[in-house]
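Task 17 of the worksheet. Students: predict the tertiary structure of the chain below and write it out as structure tokens. Keep your answer in the requested format; marks are given for formatting as well as content.
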Amino acid sequence: MNNLLLEIMREQDISFLYTPHSWYREIKRPNGKPDQTAISVLSDILSRFEPQYQFDDQGDIVGMEWPLKSSGIICEYEHIAHGMNFSLSDVKNAMDRLVEKGILRRSFYKKNGCLPMMIEIVPERFKAITRFKNDIT
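Model answer:
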């Protein structure tokens, strides 16, 4: 799969179920405090990129299948809000802030009377806010 975001995640050895501590320094509300809702929403979106592991008879990993063939996911605010126990407006506002910061891109389209959206994590911005450097000298 040729996907810059997944290449960055492999390069930095980022777990799909781990929220980097650097996000608490980089993703903040206007009052300067970490934006917990936006961080949780971004973490939930990132977790959808986790590969499906393939195992042999002994239980060893023999391969991975990437569930996403594109750089984004299709979803609705309601699905994220329900899954994370946030209000619909909390999720929409958090995503608005992530889009304003250039971390996410989203586009809407009409499908069967619904208004789903394509959400993409911007790889360059993701790399800039996601750090795993050891600060101990």
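Marker's comment: The two ends are 37 Å apart (CA to CA). The chain has a mean pLDDT of 80.
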